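Milestone 3.1: sequence recovery, worked example.
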């Protein structure tokens, strides 16, 4: 989840500035679309995880986040930013609910509090690292390339997930 929230840190920290640089006003609507998509997909993906298993939710969710970040690096209009909010929100919501459930299910009952705390520590760590790391990249390379580089974190998350799932 840390690798996923690294991308979220770049969005929270720099999306408004990036949008202005791209000539897009009112990009705050991005966060509205993102939040609505989270609210809608979390219960749906929770049920899909129960029925189909983690792989059928986590892998497409990571791919959705990846597509969202690629699209963000090329967004030039309010419509494209809102589409990114939808795609990214779907992927982020699927990752968050599924990976947290996975953490809880793979933890002994007496360690559930520690598992949740660890999960959210990784969540917050990703946001902080993303803001700092991608802030450095943005200053050196510009926002468009910086958002392109966020895809590295998602590809790493996907590879890591596949390796861990194969070994279990």
């Amino acid at each position: 989840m840390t690798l996923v929230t690294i991308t979220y840190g770049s969005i929270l920290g720099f999306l408004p500035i990036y949008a202005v640089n791209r000539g897009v006003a009112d990009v705050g609507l991005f966060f509205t679309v993102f939040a609505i998509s989270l609210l809608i997909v979390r219960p749906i993906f929770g049920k899909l995880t129960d029925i189909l298993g983690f792989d059928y939710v986590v892998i497409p969710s990571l791919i959705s986040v990846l597509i969202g970040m690629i699209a963000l690096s090329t967004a030039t209009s309010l419509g494209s930013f809102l589409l990114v909010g939808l795609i990214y929100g779907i992927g982020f919501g699927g990752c968050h609910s599924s990976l947290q459930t996975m953490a809880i299910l793979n933890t002994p009952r007496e360690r559930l509090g520690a598992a949740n705390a660890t999960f959210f520590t990784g969540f917050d760590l990703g946001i902080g690292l993303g803001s700092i790391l991608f802030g450095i990249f943005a200053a050196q390379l510009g926002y468009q390339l910086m958002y392109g580089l966020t895809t590295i974190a998602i590809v790493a998350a996907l590879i890591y997930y596949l390796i861990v799932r194969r070994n279990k």
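The mean pLDDT is 94. The CA atoms of residues 42 and 93 lie 6 Å apart.
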